[in-house]
User: Which sequence fits this backbone?
């Protein structure tokens, strides 16, 4: 089974990504590392612990990552994130379980480093779905892991407008400097950006199916996702008929890379001016014969969304 570490800013679609991995028989979640973004780190970690308890998986350890961007001393949740994910990260729907567990005393950075060292290349995939600060710190603290780590991240955009500005996607925008440092390494990175995540939707019909199972897990996932669908439509002014499954797609590709087609290139992140937070080809590595980052540009939406819903329904059935 493929070993997975989720680096979450939990978050509605982060919750759905976690649910998907827990419901995937060919994956083993070996730990959750908490970052910041949709919520402050400690809120995200508390959500992770409660969610694991809700799904009866108190055996999975949770770690705390760095709680603020590399260029500032503190972090405040951007107003947009609070609107999209609610003040508590789960659409103002309370998680119907309360964990008495704490996060581990070792931090995310060391857990990621140790885990990469302990596994053969390709056995473990790290899936960041929030700010990349701790991932950058791990690669810097232990450069020996750069050749061994596999990263499938949700973030960025190459062909679509940004979602927190004309160019920037939210996760990259939380810490563009850290994201730039991650892309500048030789690490094996697949970028699941808005190019593909805007192609995969969860609909109100899907949430109805989850609710009709009649369990508290099903009701919680349905209520939380309905909040996300409503707010996505309200904010965009477009009837989408659903919400984007940003983070679940990254988790799914980590487990099954055949869900997307990719374009290999060398990326950088703009850190200055009005394009701050933009992911774009790195002109200084344009002629480099080795193209490091696989950017997903095509997705088998039907195969993914069918599998996603099948698994969520099974998980919610308990
Ligand atoms: C990303 O930003 C966060 O709001 C979501 O959880 C997702 O990781 C989408 O741009
Ligand atoms: Ca996220």
Assistant:
């Amino acid at each position: 089974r493929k070993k997975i570490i989720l680096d979450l800013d939990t978050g509605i679609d982060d919750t759905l990504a976690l649910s998907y991995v827990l419901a995937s028989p060919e994956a083993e979640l070996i730990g959750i590392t908490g970052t910041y973004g949709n919520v402050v780190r400690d809120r995200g970690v508390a959500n992770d612990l409660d969610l694991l308890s809700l799904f009866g998986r108190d055996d999975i350890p949770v770690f705390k990552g760095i709680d603020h961007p590399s260029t500032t001393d503190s972090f405040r949740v951007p107003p947009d994130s609070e609107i999209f994910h609610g003040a508590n990260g789960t659409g103002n729907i309370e998680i119907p379980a309360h964990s008495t567990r704490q996060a581990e005393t070792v931090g995310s950075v060391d857990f990621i480093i140790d885990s990469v060292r302990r596994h053969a290349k390709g056995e473990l995939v790290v899936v960041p779905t929030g700010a990349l600060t701790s991932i950058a710190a791990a690669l810097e603290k232990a450069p020996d892991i750069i050749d061994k780590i596999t990263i499938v991240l949700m973030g960025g955009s190459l062909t679509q407008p940004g979602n927190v500005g004309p160019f920037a996607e939210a996760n990259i925008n939380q810490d563009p400097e850290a994201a730039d440092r991650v892309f500048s390494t030789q690490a094996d990175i697949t970028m699941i950006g808005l190019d593909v995540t805007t192609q995969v939707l969860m609909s109100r019909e899907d949430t109805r199916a989850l609710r009709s199972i009649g369990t508290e897990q099903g009701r919680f996932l349905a209520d939380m996702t309905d909040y996300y669908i409503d707010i996505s439509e309200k904010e965009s002014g477009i009837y989408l008929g659903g919400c984007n499954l940003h983070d679940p797609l990254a988790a799914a590709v980590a487990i099954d890379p055949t869900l997307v087609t990719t374009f290999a290139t060398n990326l950088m992140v703009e850190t200055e001016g009005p394009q701050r937070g933009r992911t774009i080809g790195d002109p200084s590595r344009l002629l480099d014969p080795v193209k490091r980052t696989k950017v997903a540009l095509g997705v088998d939406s039907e195969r993914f969304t069918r599998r996603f819903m099948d698994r969520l329904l099974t998980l919610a059935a308990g």
